[in-house]
Amino acid sequence: MNWHDNKRVLVGVSGGIAAYKSPALVRRLLQRGCEVRVMMSRAAAEFITPLTLQAVSGHPVHQHLLDAEAESGMGHIELARWAEHIVIAPATADFIARLAQGRADDLLTAVTLASDAEVAVAPAMNRLMWQNPATQRNLESLKQRGIRIIGPGSGEQACGESGDGRMSEPEDIATALAGEGHPRLLDGLSALITAGPTWEALDPVRGITNHSSGKMGYAMARAARDFGAQVTLVSGPVNRNTPREVRRIDVVSAQQMLDAVAEHAPDADLFIAVAAVADYRPAAAAEHKMKKKSERMKVELIRNPDILASVAAMKRAPFTVGFAAETENAVANARQKLKAKGADVMAANQVADDDNVFGNDENSVTLIDKDGEAVLAKTDKYRLAVQIIEHIAPLLAQRRQATAG
Ligand code: PMT
User: Annotated catalytic residue: which of 77, 159, 299, 375?
Assistant: First the structure.
């Protein structure tokens, strides 16, 4: 099955001369097997008619934020929910600025803001607008939020000048959407990833857990997929969308996480333990909701199994990567965990009062292995995950060569 098959892609057209290329993009996406819908801004309709895009896509084009007819059918929220991918092509400097500000005062910005689809923009503008620090700052802010920037290309522009700012060619945008921008460093390999917290029940309504949101683990799953791996994600209780093409197994407790991991680890080439697993669980969960009786209550806790250590100890263990969130001496403590758990790499992240990695959109890590350390600067969790894969892929390849030889 190819990446584009049945992908629900929403193409947004903002008002620039490059809008004349948008029908070609719609056609390329359809030819590759995507389902495509189109929305366009008022200004875009000055450059290209909605009818052209309707004819090419085979569906009415969405044009208005408040549209009584559309609200009864596919209004902006339905459109936002429908899309797995949103690509704004062309994305003008003005659209990029408004998206960066989080505005929602027209259809394109409102849908993009209201969607959890993966978003990409293909900028198209005059070279000086592109170079302007204001535009560059806005683009940086989009990148921080995990929005992909496709292009722009360089060359002769509609305004007669020449330089950066031409919208990428429709074929290239269609290709880039599939994440083919990353080298297929994990092609043919299978990655098993844990994410989120675990929940250790005290009684049917209470439990011990932590603040892990799953953002880092889900970002690792997306990145591993984008580098070509088949990904199985064992997820603790979090409210997140499953990344496309990722097999997700939901678990609640550490024991359930261990069971799921034990079942799939023998087939994995790479195991990445991002989950914040509770080290202890109540010795016995009460069958019924516990009642208040005295001022103090003692709960006996027992150690949970160590999932990462158990995978690393397997006879034919996959390449193992752990994460360590530390409030002090992050690198030294993580190095100690690397040894104690027998992992190949440990990613140390610092937990600070004013900058807590739990729940944050961004993170920075120091990657530690037996030979040294590499510091990866703070960035959004997907980009960090990409850098982690780029760092570990050669180590994994070396290990596979050594064990094959
Ligand atoms: O989910 P987010 O909000 O994005 O936050 C991300 C994160 C902070 C949860 C993540 O970046 C992170 O650091 N995860 C590990 C948290 C941690 O401190 O784990 P630990 O030090 O208790 O364990 C070290 C390693 O052993 C981890 O890889 C953990 O998954 C693993 N472990 C721990 C205990 C256990 N019983 N089994 C395990 O496999």
Answer: 159
Q: Whose CA is nearest to atom 13 of ligand 1?
A: 325
Phi, psi of 120 (to 5 degrees): -135, 145
Using CA atoms of 110, 116, 117, 118 in order, give the dihedral in degrees to the nearest 10: 100
Q: Which of 9-23, 177-191, 327-341 has the lowest mean pLDDT?
A: 177-191
Distance 273 CA to ligand 1 centre (A): 7
Using one digit for the tens of pLDDT, what is the confidence trace for 11-20? Answer: 999 999 999 9
> Tell me, what's the pLDDT at 233?
98
Res 89 pLDDT > 60: yes
Average pLDDT over residues 259-279: 98
* High-pLDDT (> 70) share of the chain, %: 97
Q: Which residue has the tokens 């005059």?
A: 126
What's the gap in Å between 98 CA and the centre of ligand 1? Answer: 37
Ligand 1 pocket: which of 212, 259, 302, 383 to mutate (most atoms <8 Å of CB)?
212
Q: Which of 88-92, 149-153, 239-243 has the highest mean pLDDT?
A: 88-92
Q: Which residues pair with 10 in a beta bridge?
A: 37, 86
Straight-line distance from the first to the last Cα atom of the chain, in angstroms, rounded to the nearest whole number: 33
Atom of ligand 1 nearest to the CA of 365: 11
User: 358-374 pLDDT, tens per residue?
Assistant: 998 889 999 999 999 99
